[in-house]
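Pasting as-is:
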Amino acid sequence: MPQLIVREIEEQVVKKLKQQAGAHGVSMEEEHRRILRESLLGKAAKKPSFKDALFAMPNVGEDADFERRPQLDRPVEL
C-alpha cells in the first residue's frame, strides 16, 4: 500500500490530532487516515448496531404475543 509523508506540520495541528486520536481510541496514524478518507471520499454509511436496531423497533403488542408455545411431541425414527 502506498505511503504518504507530510512534513512541516504546525505543532498545534499535531497536538489536536493526538487528542482526537486518543478520544477515538486509535493511533495518530489511523486518525490521520480516517480524516483523509472522510474528507476525500465522504463518510461511509455506518450500519446500525444490533442494539440500535432493537431500539428502533416499534413498541407494539403484548409480551404474551411473543412467547414460545410448548412443542408437541412427535415420533422420531432413529
